[in-house]
Amino acid sequence: MNNDPQPRSLHFHRDYLDAVRTGRKTTTVRYRDPVAEGPVALVFELDEELVLPGVVTRLTSKRVDELTGADAVADGFRDLAELHARLRYHYPDLAPADEVTVVRFRLAADAP
Question: What is the pTM of this model?
Fold first, then answer.
């Protein structure tokens, strides 16, 4: 559990804001980006930074080639091919055997 006075940050590309706000995106796949369970600031890179309060509820380690269609849908994508394409966009050197973390999160009750 995170006992820091300030929640840790989890940064997102601006493209994901609507999916997070509407609950279509409840996970994010991270590579070499340490994340802990507990309170988190969901930071969106817009013209002006937007921060939403959130909670990381579960962390699951998987290889890229073990990701499933269900992982893709929870991450806000139509299918596994779309998830893989976005992972290659964010992590160009990512290989099928690389270990990633599936980060399950939710907006905090006081999120706008």
Answer: 0.88
